[in-house]
Write a structure and sequence with these properties.
Blueprint: H1 7-12, E1 21-26, E2 32-38, E3 41-46, H2 62-77, H3 87-109, H4 113-133, H5 137-141, H6 147-164, H7 168-188, H8 193-199, H9 201-213, H10 222-234, H11 238-253
Helix pairs in contact: 3-4, 4-6, 6-7, 6-9, 7-9, 10-11
Length: about 250
């Protein structure tokens, strides 16, 4: 069984602590696959569909299978009332979300931003399905702890894609939307909103991205920021207004 020993492969690709060790390689059948080096070995993932390449109940993902079951229930009963995800279904959805998490972290390191946005949206849908239809309180709430991080990763990927296209304005808009989505998630959880928001690691990361991008805006765009600020105030969206004020201040300081 010596030919099954992974030692030579692992030795040729050493694990580096504190880094996302990931690569995109071509498989024997010419398809591209993702490999992530972890401390105890290598994770291998498909680039599309479920990362493990399986098709639960003939669907590309378990989430799609569950969504189809919900649609069948609605078609039969007229609405979603009475539809429930068993604890086993929720457990399997959580396991799928972990697979997608590993892949979107890898895709971000590979600068494959569309894939990151696709996979973070997938996991946000899983969180929502479990929240709405989970059989027990545990099933409904256990994944909420991942919501803010998933929202941050989605905003980070969208902003990074815009930066790569040299569209600073779109990058800032993506970050602002991400910050607002995180604020709403914290508020929905009934936490001390302002304290939890200000101390959130996800908020700090997005703010750091925004602080690095604002000085790159042409000064001519200041008027547009003023218009957005007025609209936010008119809509009594004071959180967004505070963000826009910060951006205007940074333009002046620059």
């Amino acid at each position: 069984m010596a030919d099954e020993d992974l030692t030579p492969i692992l030795r040729n690709w050493p694990y580096v602590s504190g880094e996302v060790n990931v690569r995109l390689i071509q498989a024997d059948d010419a398809r591209m696959i993702i490999q992530m080096r972890v401390d105890l070995g290598i994770l291998q993932m498909e680039t599309t569909g479920r990362p493990d390449g399986t098709q639960p109940d003939g669907f590309e993902s378990l989430l799609e299978a569950v969504a189809a079951a919900l649609q069948s229930h609605v078609d039969e009963h007229g609405d979603a009332e009475g539809f429930t995800l068993t604890s086993e279904h929720c457990r399997r959805l959580r396991e799928e979300a972990i697979q997608f998490y590993h892949r979107y972290v890898s895709l971000l390191a590979l600068e494959e931003y569309d894939g990151v946005m696709r996979d973070t949206e997938h996991n946000l849908h899983i969180i929502e399905f479990c929240r709405e239809f989970g059989e027990t309180e545990f099933d409904q709430t256990v994944m909420e702890q991942l919501r803010c991080n998933t929202l941050m990763m989605h905003a980070r990927a969208e902003a990074s894609k815009a930066v790569a296209a040299k569209d600073t304005r779109a990058a800032l808009a993506a970050i602002d939307e991400g910050l607002e989505a995180i604020r709403q998630a914290i508020e929905a959880e009934g936490q001390d909103e302002e304290d939890a928001f200000e101390t959130s690691a996800e908020v700090q990361l997005l703010r750091s991205m925004r602080d690095a991008l604002v000085p790159k805006l042409p000064v001519s765009q200041r008027s547009e920021l003023h218009d957005r600020l007025k609209a936010a105030l008119a809509a009594e969206n004071y959180e967004l207004a505070a963000i826009l004020r910060d951006e205007l201040r940074m333009l002046r300081d620059d």
